């Protein structure tokens, strides 16, 4: 990590990706996709629901996004949601 200040949400996402042993390049792509997802939502991605991810996938498909990009674009926010759900 760098000395630059990063948000707790981004730090948590990076930690979750590190635990899953995702490569630095994959981590960069996931962070970019989570940011784009948050831009789509108009709010922080940590407030997203599974329905928000579904709407995002539909929007990506409607603008002609390729299937691999739609898949990774949905996987990145889903990873974020998994990291923030509490066990019952």
Write the SSE topology:
Blueprint: H1 8-19, H2 24-41, H3 50-62, H4 67-84
What does this structure look like?
The chain is an all-alpha fold and 88 residues long. It has a single domain (8-84), classed as DNA polymerase, domain 1 (Orthogonal Bundle), CATH 1.10.150. The protein is 69% helix and 0% strand. The longest helix has 18 residues, at 24-41. The chain is globular and about 35 Å long.
Keywords summarizing the entry:
0% strand, mainly alpha, 88 residues, globular, 69% helix, 4 helices, DNA polymerase, domain 1
Rg, Cα atoms, Å: 13 Å
Say what the CATH topology is: DNA polymerase, domain 1
Count of helical segments?
Answer: 4
| Number of distinct beta strands | 0
What pattern of helices and strands is seen along the backbone?
A: HHHH
Distance between the termini: 32 Å
Q: Would you identify the regions where 5 or more consecutive residues have pLDDT less than 50?
A: none
CATH architecture: Orthogonal Bundle
Structural class: mainly alpha
Portion of residues in beta strands equals under 5%
Query: Which CATH class applies here?
Result: Mainly Alpha
What summary fits the major beta sheet?
none
Gross geometry: globular
Helix content: 55-70%
Total count of domains: 1
What would the average pLDDT be, to the nearest integer? 84
